[in-house]
Design brief:
alpha+beta, 6-stranded antiparallel β-sheet, Thiol Ester Dehydrase, Chain A
Amino acid sequence: MEHLEQQKDIYPSKIGQDWHHRNCYGCGPDNTKGLHLEFPFEEETGDVFFITKINKSFEGAPGYAHGGVMAAILDEAQGVLCFHIGHFVMTDQLNISYKKACPLNEEIEVRAKISAVRRRRLHTTASIKLVRTGEILATSKARWYDMPERIFTRMFHRSPLSTERLARLLVENKKRGKLIRKKFKKS
């Protein structure tokens, strides 16, 4: 986050850490018990996409990831995606379908997509897939509440980045989101 604070110009976010606090469970590098994931945004597809491994610290059944950790990854991937396209959101509903247990220390592919934007609600989908076999391990659908600026300001007033700077970053992300939606409407 420090690198953004030092810049004169503000550019759209590329990873969750571009706007989030350093102790976030999902993306914060300072959270010793956190996931330490980046949740990168793909400009071409308008998705959050990355490959990672879940280690033994997040074990549920012997040799497999805890379902709650998988839920946290799906929730965070979809929530960060909403921010990447210019919306400050809070989870309204999160529905997960677990298809198969996720083995520890194997590469998994995480992808989150926007499925609809309607008034103050956003709808997203996400999946976790085992890279080695291509099997889908879990899928998710979520509905998000687009938070008003007054709530955003209240929630982030302790952030190392000023709320004014975060609001400007949201504006840049929203511009990018509109361009991406236009591109997909044409295709």
